[in-house]
# Entry
Amino acid sequence: MNQEQHHDRAYWIKWGIALLIPVVTYFWTGTTDLSPEAQRFLTFTFCALAIWTLNILPEPFVAMILPIIYIVTGVGKPSQILSAWSGSAGWLVLSGLFIAEVMSSTGIAKRIAVWSIKLTEGSFHFLLWGFMLAGYIMAPFIPTVTGKAAIFAILAVGICKGFNIQPCSKEAATLVIGALLAVAIPKLAFLSAGVDVAMAMGLYAQATGTPISWSAYFLHNFPPSLLYAALSIYTLLFIMRPKLSFDLETFIREEYETLGPMSLREKKALILLGLLLLSLVTDQIHKIDAGWMMLMIASLAFFPGFSLLDKKSLSNIPYQQVFFVVGCMTIGGAAKASGVDKVIADLLMPLLSGGELYTSFSTFVSGIILNFLFTPIAAFSAMTAPLVEMASQMNMSPLALVYSFSYGVDQYLFPYEFVVTLYFYSTGYIKLSHFMTIFAVRMVLAGAFLALVLYPYWQFVGVF
# Structure
């Protein structure tokens, strides 16, 4: 059997699995007391999740066609299914894509990353904090992770090659995983830092009717995220115990000097980022949603005075990300329209109900489990509405459960679980055993972190 035949066979096997799952779901749900609308919702949703997991159709296409299928098959009314399009989450993602293009095309993103690393002054341990600092600086402006991942991976691998650090060594794994953490962790700190976070908060607003402001999210999550970053970095250093005797200062200084003096375009980009950050941290004053504000500020890049984007730049924007996010959000609207959110909440109640801490921890664990099966966006799509419903039945804060779930989704054991982990693992500089050991220990410590730090902090700031 040649490679093409093997590929065709694997392709059709995947399609067989993707079609078998909804068929089994349809006939199984037919034996229950579920309504016809709920039966159809579960059938088509499981089919979409299977297709996403098996990667046999483009994710944005599935997300675009799924709400139409919901409407045509009577799962809910268009006003219910498509309500996500009237929210700000999709526009926040779109504005983030514009800002990402500005930061990439002007070179300011790489300058920020190299400048942050330069602050470490050659210390290997502090180099990881340099990565993390750069991650935090860029996170509020870029909700998509792939661009940030590329910058950090190139820098980490460049350092390894520059000092002849062997792939899959402890030292290489420390550097590359440190760069990975700098992309993954800061997205928990800002409402605008991750596509999945923006979508989860959009679903929360859709389910509760009460949107969370950018500054409120910042207060709830930025301070503990710094401790979480420290926990992750020192876990990495303790497990790997890298031994590097050389001085990184000269290498980093040379890398910084290759950037040359800051150009006028970079200065304009910094001004734009400053305006954007100012508008976000003052949202409690002007009362304008972060999605609308980010898009208005990002649009300035097209106008005279800035001129950072033009007609050609529009062709570089991956618009499919917007359709993917909002399409996934329609799962929440369809779940609510069909009553499945209440069904799932009723099923989860015996497993997750208890005191506030117990329920938060159980929700954290459910995030870990679902992350094995689905992408973070798919996990949030499936669970946000049921978590809100369950919280309302238990007279608990739904926001606390969504936050706890987000920390569970941030736990990884295998590289395939998240596009960023897979990207960094594909560099060939991380051994699988190193990856699994580090993130398994981090997973356990994250559970303790939830109980000892996040839970009391969220109580203090009024999340519970």
Residues 432-460 form the longest helix (29 residues).
